[in-house]
Write a structure and sequence with these properties.
six-stranded antiparallel beta sheet; seven-stranded antiparallel beta sheet; alpha+beta
Length: about 325
Amino acid sequence: FDHVTFGDEQYERINAQTIQRAIRLQRDIVLNGVVVEKWLGSKLDPIQDDAKAITGTDLVIKPAPFPPAQPYSISIGGTTYFDYVLLRTKEILDNGNIVLTNEEQENRSFDIRFILNPNMRNFTTQFTPRTKNNSDILKNLLLMKAVKSGQELTVKSLSQGELLFAVKMQSTDLEPDEGDIELMKKVVAVEEYLGKPLELPDELSLVDCMWLDYVYDLVSGKGHTEKCSKFSASVTLSGKMENTDKFTDGAVFSVEFNAQIPVDDFFGQSFELPIRRRIDGAKLKDVDKAKKLAEILDDGDNLKLDFVPADGYDAIQCIDTLQHEAESEHQH
């Protein structure tokens, strides 16, 4: 052959060192311009047609492959971030560092790359999300935070139940903003409730943030409380109201009812939230007016009541919680 091509390098001959590098780096060795002769035992074959057809071409020598990918789990600080990852040695660099990746894992959401020294003196890790869905963005932020915290990363074999390695994390990257993490936690929680993805704009307005906080408070089970200076409610009478003695200036009212709250154009989704709303710390704005209306209205009529903060309360408390599924179905 004329020469040997190995990556971007060229050599005049092939030797054991070149073959070893090819195996470590998993790169092909190309013999350029090979010269071929056909022999019959110890005698040169007078018919060299087949040999001439090959002469001058390039011969590619494939390196012996590394062992196949194996399943592992990856944890940082005792928290499992990946419960199933197929890792395989991709190459062994000239300085002896081993490169592990999950490139052979199909339908993976993250590209994972480890570069480690056999004596574990040096270690580099890369977690790169392959998708732009919000749950993977959140996971990436949490990974960045965990890596920055200097906690121990462990990679455990799922087939053998043994640690492949454990190392203290070190990172010079900037720690992700805690506000971004909390924002994405809310977004992912709402997505899990809806079963649909949310499309976030590049910048969230104040109204966007207020609606996200409200929906998240409900779907997370915390409930949402607002203060207001006035409140109106309509009550359908089930009969003529004969006794209005409770309509007094000092009476403190608590009103509770179910409702469907429409949420339109919420990051690309529209839906209704079945809520239970409770109004606390309210009193009638005009007691005499309320009494007179109650006395003249009949069965089936709507009685509109206007409320203001009761004495001793700085505001009316409006407390919304998400209805339980059975309660919501009963309402319909």
